[in-house]
Write a sequence for this structure.
């Protein structure tokens, strides 16, 4: 294993991570909920539920975060998306379906689940990270 | 919940959504190349994601310790904290499928939505497919 020291950004990673932790903390303390993106979005798609307003409010926050970053905090972000459109389509379906079937994603299971010491979330996090390692290895080093 | 606290709670939803989005941007997690660089153990490895998770969980541990003791939120709403502890097949299979998708694109739901907000076309495509995947889950779930 070789560490890519030029890409490794422990400072911003830790700072951003702390912000994520603060957001998840405020969310459970003030709104009484787990900050899990797939759960919040998924519930919005189930038309029978009447609790769409809070979900939409949160999602609007995520969608407008880049505007706050640019105009208020003057943070610029760098984005590189290597995947082509076909891969993105397949990946998107897997992420959406998998997160709902597995009851959570990187935020709900990863950040919140590990924070509340949930055995289910620990297993889920190990499982999706291991599968992530595996698929990237297969795609980059076997083909 | 009264009318006022409902307004407060939706404002809180929005602001926390913004904060979470900013956290994702600052940490570098909205950049799919950084996610796949973490997942590529055999290539030039970027361990940044461990620091993101570490920072988030360090703060979260305290908050969830406090939250578990509460019967209502600071804004007066109910606490919705999961209580399940069983490890079942959907948890494993769902998380595995999620992991494969995450590794293929370098996107998970939060960063994809933030990138959608920047108007990035590839994020638009990913989010549409992700929503389709979620709808597919609901449709298959209803058949059972």
């Amino acid at each position: 294993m070789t560490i890519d020291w030029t890409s490794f950004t422990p400072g911003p990673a830790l700072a951003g991570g702390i912000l994520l932790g603060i957001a998840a903390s405020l969310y459970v303390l003030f709104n009484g909920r787990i900050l899990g993106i797939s759960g919040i979005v998924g519930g919005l798609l189930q038309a029978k539920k009447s609790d769409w307003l809070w979900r939409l409010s949160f999602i609007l926050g995520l969608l407008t975060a880049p505007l706050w970053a640019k105009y208020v905090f003057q943070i610029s972000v760098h984005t590189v998306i290597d995947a082509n459109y076909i891969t993105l389509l397949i990946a998107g379906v897997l992420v959406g379906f998998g997160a709902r079937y597995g009851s959570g994603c990187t935020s709900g299971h990863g950040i919140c689940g590990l924070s509340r010491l949930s055995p289910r979330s620990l297993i889920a996090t190990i499982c999706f990270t291991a599968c992530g390692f595996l698929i990237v290895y297969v795609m980059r080093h076997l083909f | 919940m009264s009318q006022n606290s409902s307004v407060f709670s939706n404002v809180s939803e929005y602001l926390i959504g913004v904060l979470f989005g900013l956290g994702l941007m600052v940490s570098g997690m909205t950049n799919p190349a950084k996610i796949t660089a973490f997942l590529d153990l055999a290539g030039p490895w970027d361990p940044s994601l461990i620091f993101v998770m570490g920072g988030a969980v360090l703060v979260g541990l305290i908050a969830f310790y406090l939250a578990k003791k509460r019967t209502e939120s600071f804004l007066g709403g109910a606490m919705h904290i999961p209580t399940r502890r069983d490890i079942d097949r959907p948890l494993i299979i769902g998380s595995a499928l999620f992991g494969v998708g995450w590794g293929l694109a370098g996107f998970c739901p939060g960063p994809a939505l933030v990138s959608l907000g920047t108007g990035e076309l590839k994020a638009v495509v990913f989010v549409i497919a992700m929503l389709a995947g979620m709808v597919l889950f609901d449709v298959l779930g209803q058949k059972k």
